[in-house]
Amino acid sequence: MQGPKLDWHGKDIISIRELSREHIEDVLNQAHQIRPDPALLQGRVMASLFFEPSTRTQLSFATAMQRLGGRVIGFSGIEGTSIVKGESLQDTVRTIEKYADIIVIRHPLEGSARLVADTVSIPVINAGDGANQHPTQTLMDLFTIKKFHNRLDGLKIGLVGDLKYGRTVHSLAIALTRFRKITLRLISPPNLRMPPSVLQELNGIVSYTETEHLDLSDLDVVYVTRIQKERFPDIEEYEKVKGTYVITPKVCEMLKPTAILLHPLPRVDEITPDVDALPQAKYFDQVQNGVPVRMALLKLILLGA
Ligand code: NCD
Prior knowledge:
34% of the residues lie in helices and 15% in strands. It is built from ten helices and nine strands. The radius of gyration is 19 Å and the shape is globular.
């Protein structure tokens, strides 16, 4: 059944908080149906501004735009731009909005995507702002979970690893407040626990527990993350926690046969390569889902439906 039209046209996607359950379901449904169509976004230009390293997010956004007939401009790293001459982020994006119809930005500073959205009049998608948010990763995570479990309500989900600095788990945990009867197990070293600001948003909606212990046996979804080395103010602190959790085939023996193992990637050492062959390993499916989800999002924002 078609509900009332959602406010997609020209919408900024800065935080997952801006998306209702209806928005999320709309993107996932559209992502399920969307097919390459070189006429759909013909003549539209996406500016891809990556101030931090990226393989999947950057290339899947570019692939998504091109599969719908749009074009991509932008940069990956500031070398070669006037930022190295001292130009501000605001002046940079005030320039780019003259060339493009939409901005996709990844930047190391929390709040940078919001600042850009407040500065320009074209829509802005946050592809990761520091340790804060990564809303489009969450949409592809939810798409993947729905694909394998056929639902987003009533699931037991474990988030494992760096819950303090990992932006993907911040966005995902908040997104789960949109669904019913979710149980979250937050598994991390004590100094990398989920920030209190995120926990506060879960209170009374999502039932969660925090633990250091890698108990995965009753979970439907196990979402493993990389320790975010680049965000540690002190490298010695990183050295203390690196390698805390390593998912091996032996560890996976405790998984339910129907459980799915996800990771936003890149992995460093937290899932060994011999896990990839197990039936629960779905992180490369997750990667693949980035393209249809981002195609659907670009279509909704640029065309309105
Ligand atoms: C993540 C990110 O950049 O936050 N990567 C991604 O976009 N798939 C996760 C990470 O870097 O650990």
